[in-house]
Amino acid sequence: MVLLLLLQGAQSVYIKYNGFQVQLESVKKLSELEKEQMSNPQLKTSSLLPDVCHDPALPVDLQPVCAFQEAASIFKALRTIATDECELCINVACTGCG
């Protein structure tokens, strides 16, 4: 029984959106980084890209999003999808749950 729980815990849930496939955990990390940057105005940049695009802690699977002018809206959509709908696997954009 413990082995089964470990296998289920090792499965990653992915979100597919606009040609990107990112892990649910990466989107959660994105939200944490954005909160950190909001609370620390010294981390603000004057770039057209979202501030998180300049953060070395941004998960690798989210970094390609920063190559697009629509990065802010893509990140917003990913955060919206990543709400409980993904954890409950009721959103068709979420894969790997089971």
Automatic annotation (TrEMBL):
GO terms for cellular component: extracellular region. It is found in: Secreted. Pfam families: Guanylin (PF02058). One of its GO terms (molecular function) is guanylate cyclase activator activity. Its main location: secreted. Keywords: Disulfide bond, Secreted, Signal. Disulfide bonds join 53-66, 86-94, 89-97. Gene3D superfamilies: Guanylin (3.90.1450.10). Endogenous activator of intestinal guanylate cyclase. It stimulates this enzyme through the same receptor binding region as the heat-stable enterotoxins. May be a potent physiological regulator of intestinal fluid and electrolyte transport. May be an autocrine/paracrine regulator of intestinal salt and water transport. Belongs to the guanylin family. PANTHER family: GUANYLATE CYCLASE ACTIVATOR 2B (PTHR11318:SF4), GUANYLIN FAMILY MEMBER (PTHR11318). This is Guanylate cyclase activator 2B.
